[in-house]
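Shipment paperwork, digital attachment
Item: protein structure file
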Amino acid sequence: MPRPKINHTKENLLRRVRKQRLKYVTILPSLVTILNGVFGFAAIALAGTNEAAIAKACYLILLAMVADMLDGRLARMSHNTSSFGGQLDSLCDIISFGVAPAFIMLRILEFKLAAFTPLYPVLASFLQRFFWLAAAAYIICAAIRLARFNVENEEDESAHMSFVGLPTPAAAGVIASLIIFHQEALPEFATRNTLFYNACESTLVYALPLISLMVAVLMVSRIRYPHVLNQYVRGKKPFEHFIKVLLFLGLVIWSRQAALAIIFCGFALSGFAKWFYLKVLKPRLAVRRCLDSTRTTA
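Attachment content:
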C-alpha cells in the first residue's frame, strides 16, 4: 500500500503558528488595562439599577479613562509595548468607551420616555427606535475606530503626538460629561428658575442621540486631534500654557460638572473647527484675495 502524501507546506505553516504562541505578558500594564474594562462593566451594571446611579456610572467611565492613559504610559516607560497589550486595550476600550456610554444614554432616555409613552405611544415608539439606532451607530463607529487604530498604530513614542479621528475616550467623555451635567448641575437651576430648567433639561436629553451620532462620525473621520498630554503638558512649554492650565483649574473649582462638559465638547469641536478652516474656509479666502488683487491691478 502506498503511503499518503503529506502536505509539508501546511505542516510547516502549523509549526510556525505554534512557535508564535504567547509566552510573555507584561503584568502591570495589562492589569491596569483590565481595570479599564472592569470600570466600564461596572458603569453598565450601575446604570442598569436606577436613575439616581446614572451620574455615578458616568464617573466610572472617567475612571476608565484614567486607567486607559496609565496603561500605555506604563508600557512605554518600561519599554514593554506589545501587540498583546494593544489588542487587550482595544477590547477593554470597546466596553468602557463604546458599550457603556451608549447603554447609559439609552437608560436616561428610557427614564425620560417613561412619562411620555402613555400620552403619545406612537411617537414614543418611533423615538425609542431612533435612540436605539443612534446608540448602535455609536458602538459600531467606536469598534471601527479601535480596529483602525490597531492596524495603523506605531509603538514609537514620537508617533503618539496626534490621533487620526476623535479618540474613543474623548467621544465617551462628551456623552458622559453631558449626562453628569444634566444629572448634577442642572437640578440647581430648578430652585432658581423652573421654566429655564425644564427647557434645558428636555433639550439636553433629546439632543444626546444627535450628539452621539456626531461624535461617532468624528471617530471614523480622518480629522487629526492632538495628544493633549504629549503636546501640551510634557516637557518645557511656553508661559501661555501655564496660564491655560491655571484657567482650567479655575474652571474645575468653579463647577466640576460644567468644566467636564466644556472640556470634552470643546476638544471634540476643536478638531472639526480646525479641519473646516484649513480645508474649506482658508482655500476660499485665498481665492477671494487672489481675485481682489487681480481686480486692483487691472
